[in-house]
């Protein structure tokens, strides 16, 4: 018996070593204190100006779609020629709310369909709506026709933090949509509320049969992941993995690898604290929630997300490009072979950067969150 007891600590240690790979996760990296570079490897060309632009997306012919938060949509050539698009629905424009994201459908070349999100006026506040429309161009004019809401927040909310970011799956068969917590944090953990969720749906808004809760009722059937605060970036990397960033409270902006059925913890855990100063338990205290592999305290206020692919900045291939609102910077994140992201560098832009897109020729395009807010094109310095 003494021999068994004497060997027990060694046995337990060996047992824990066997289990360790299953229960130990990598430490989250805090990149909040990184300094921005004032010398950048690119030239900046101002293409056009707009009233508080919110989102940009490229059409197959390399023209851009652009939304202004107040409720206007434009088509812009790379030379800066603007065509205003008629037929935009009324939006509830105040604070963080208004006309939000826009994206051409995967089959745009044949369907001419686009998807867009906005805050619709409603008693008691506004509702986030995802709509689809046909972009009709004729005689130098453009109009949204055959508009239909394919998903909408049924209960109005007074707060901001709408989310509203659209991402299409690489196969073009599914659509992912972020919905912020609308400044009602508890909703992010409420299975019956869309707030604080990333939703996955078919292109017509119906529930895919392989969703993690496809057999459930209501909003849960569309839910892909939960526990999000204010997700303003959503994009697929070249390897097919889905990444998201979201604004934390006072600290704790997050960059997350989004996986089916997982809970990312808000508001029960965060790497930031409430604005009142009241602390929030850290992710490390609740291993049952998915922790961000990369976060920022102090915050960068991330907005817009695009993965770089192109020849102009060949060394950046595969990098995640993120606009920084509070830090007024362009942030570049690299993801290593183990799937761990880290901020590689950030560049001072002298204005709040709202969205990022990459053109087919490899140039990087940004918009400033301002009035006037410029549309910028970045190309390498010689």
Mean pLDDT rating = 94
Query: pLDDT below 50 for ≥5 consecutive residues: which ranges?
Result: 1-23
Tell me about the largest β-sheet: 8 strands, mixed
Radius of gyration: 22 Å
Global shape? globular
How many helices? The count is 2
Cα(first) to Cα(last) distance is 77 Å
Order of helices and strands: HEEEEEEEHEEEEEEEEEEEEEEEEEE
Please tally the β strands and state the result: 25
Q: How are the strands of the largest sheet arranged?
A: 3-4-5-6-10-9-8-7
The helicity comes to under 10%
Structural class: mainly beta
Strand content: 35-45%
Protein name: PQQ-dependent sugar dehydrogenase
InterPro entries: Glc/Sorbosone_DH
Pfam families: GSDH
Domain Glucose/Sorbosone dehydrogenase: 50-377
How would you explain this protein's 3D organization?
The protein has 382 residues and is mainly beta. It has two helices and 25 strands. The strands form five sheets. The protein has an eight-stranded mixed β-sheet. The protein has a five-stranded mixed β-sheet with strand order 1-18-17-16-15, with no helix packed on it. The longest helix is centred in the first third of the chain and has 22 residues. The protein is globular. It starts with a helix and ends with a strand. 43% of the residues are buried. The N terminus is likely disordered. It holds the Pfam family GSDH. This is PQQ-dependent sugar dehydrogenase. InterPro entries: Glc/Sorbosone_DH (IPR012938).
């Amino acid at each position: 018996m003494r021999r068994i007891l004497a060997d027990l600590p060694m046995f337990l240690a060996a047992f824990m070593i066997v289990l360790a790979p299953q229960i130990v996760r990598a430490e989250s990296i805090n990149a909040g204190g990184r300094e921005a570079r004032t010398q950048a490897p690119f030239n900046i060309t101002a293409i056009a100006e707009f009233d508080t632009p919110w989102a940009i997306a490229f059409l197959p012919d390399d023209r851009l779609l652009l939304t202004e938060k107040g409720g206007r949509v434009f088509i812009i050539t790379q030379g800066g020629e603007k065509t205003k698009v008629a037929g935009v629905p009324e939006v509830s424009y105040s604070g963080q709310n208004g006309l939000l994201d826009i994206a051409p459908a995967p089959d745009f070349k044949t369907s001419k369909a686009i998807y867009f999100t906005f805050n619709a006026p409603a008693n008691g506040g506004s509702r986030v709506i995802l709509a689809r429309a046909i972009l009709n161009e004729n005689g130098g004019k453009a109009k949204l026709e055959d508009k239909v809401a394919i998903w909408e927040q049924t209960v109005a909310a007074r707060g901001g933090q709408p989310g509203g970011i659209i991402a299409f799956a690489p196969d073009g068969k599914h659509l992912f949509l972020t919905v912020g917590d609308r400044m009602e944090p508890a909703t992010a953990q409420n299975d019956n509320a869309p707030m604080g969720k990333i939703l996955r749906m078919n292109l017509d808004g119906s529930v895919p049969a392989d969703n993690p809760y496809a057999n459930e009722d209501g909003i849960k059937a569309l839910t892909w992941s939960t526990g999000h605060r204010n997700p303003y970036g959503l994009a697929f990397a070249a390897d097919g993995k889905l990444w998201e960033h979201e604004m934390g409270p006072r600290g704790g902006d997050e960059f997350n690898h989004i996986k089916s059925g997982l809970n990312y913890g808000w508001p029960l855990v965060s790497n930031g604290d409430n604005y009142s100063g009241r602390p929030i338990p850290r992710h490390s205290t609740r291993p049952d929630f998915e922790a961000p592999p990369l976060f920022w305290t102090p915050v960068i206020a991330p907005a817009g997300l695009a993965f770089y692919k192109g020849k102009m900045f060949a060394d950046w291939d595969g990098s995640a490009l993120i606009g920084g609102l509070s830090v007024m910077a362009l942030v570049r994140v690299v993801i290593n072979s183990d799937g761990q992201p880290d901020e590689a560098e950030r560049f001072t832009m002298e204005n709040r950067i709202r969205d990022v897109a990459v053109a087919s020729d490899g140039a990087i395009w940004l918009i400033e969150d301002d009035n006037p807010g410029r549309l910028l094109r970045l190309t390498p310095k010689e």
